[in-house]
Sequence to fold (538 residues):
Amino acid sequence: MAENVWILGIHMTKFGKHPTLDPVDLGVEAIRGALADAGLRMRDVGVLAAGNLMGRGGSFGQQLQKQTGQTGIPVFNVANACATGATALRVAVMAIRAGETEVGLAVGAEKLSGAGLLAGGAREAEGDTWAPKGRFGAVAALDGRVGTETMPGVFAQIGMEYGHRYGGTSFELFARISEKNHAHSTLNPLAAYQKRFTLGQIMNDVMIAYPNTRPMCSANCDGAAAAVVVSEAKLRTLSLEQQRRAVKVSASVLTSDPWQEACQVLPDVNTLTRVAAEQAYEQAGIGPEDLDLVELHDCFATAELVHYDNLKLCPQGGAVDFFNSGATWRDGTTPVNVSGGLESKGHPIAATGIANVWEVATHLRGEAGDRQIAGARVGLAHVIGLGSACGVHILEKAAV
Amino acid sequence: MTSEQSLAGRRIPLVDYLVLEGEPHLVAHECVTCAARYFDRRNACASCEQAEFRVVDVPTEGELRAFTIVSFAAPGVPVPFVAGVVDCGGTTVRGNVVNVPPDPEHVRLGMKLRLTTTSLGTDAAGVEAIGYGFEPAA
Ligand SMILES: [Zn+2]
Fold:
């Protein structure tokens, strides 16, 4: 059994519009915040994993080092769609578990304000000759002609497919999930949007891809998050205060899609999430019933529903009843997305997979202010990047 | 006779897995070893790793397993349209649901559909590109 790994310091910037900051500025703010929180300096860090999906992928970590401290340590620039941040954290945790270093740093930063619709891409002017191209031998763009490649549309179908399989879903049900997350966001000062919406406002807002209206879609925004992780041996050399605030990484799991029938037709976000959850519960020796809070990847309201089931928060097929019971509201039995979720907190892609860990860790430390889940001891953070990659981290409060 | 004249009146499928000859239908690459089906050009099977495929016909009738009505798309993509996933006798196919009003009163999960073709227009040489969609079967 590899050594336990602990989060010693973690920081999330305000999510929202940062017109004067570039991705490096945001990443630096997150790194310096996490190091200060940890009580360490860059020279104490043995490995850096960094993600910035929409631009600086090739050397983002090195660009951050130039503004925070060039210490010559190995840098892993990672990219894994919306799971990029979780992947960075996973790399830092792996390095410690492997015994290569005692201190790792993971960071994700993104500038996404005003990015508009992701994926699908503008339809290019078509040539004056039909000529087959690509793996489908297509003579023209397929988005809009053979289904949809837009994220709201893909995830709408994923929610609808769940409804077809198990029943009980409706436009209103999905809108009520969004209503919950927006209500939660009003207590989170770092959320991009902190506005409560009525059910009617959500359902009557601009339709993007039925049944997802605009407030039911993740909010494009700027932001960054970073985490300093250390080995158990290192932690025990530090002050009692550092040990008390440290948060145990009881599970750190990353999966990709195991092949399933039709998974290349409509992305299957379910199987790899179920596998990740199973591995994480096994690794942590913790069951879903033990969780005091969950931050899951509600890139769209339709996605949140299926992940209740995938993360085994409810019996298989029971996500609708589970939500209708009120379980996932902040005063319910399994509060989900008390941060406001991606729909209101925002979704600066590469930051998301560390920001949700920050949210859980902040509750476990008892430092979540007005939105604190009282007595939180165990939490789970989940992200999924379409393609697909799924990260699940289970965190536990320190016993000291 | 110029080459343009010889092409005029010809038709070309939007994708190479749409067969226009005879009754239009879709074809899939089926793994000879494990029967997994794919629509794209294949290097090997994602399920069993073998690399031998045969071309098989996909049933033209099916059932709507998931859909969305896209109201907001990339520039140049006409909206609204219905994007769906159709179970054609056990083979899952992506496609638009056409010839039905794009609203949730008319598009229902589980509805019976059949393959149909749509014109994308003709190119400079007079070749017509033909796409596919699924329309209500009843
Ligand atoms: Zn096979």
In short: Chain A has one domain: 5-114+219-396. The pocket of zinc ion is lined by residues B 31, 33-34, 36, 45, 47-48, 50 (CB under 6 Å). Chain A has a mean pLDDT of 96.
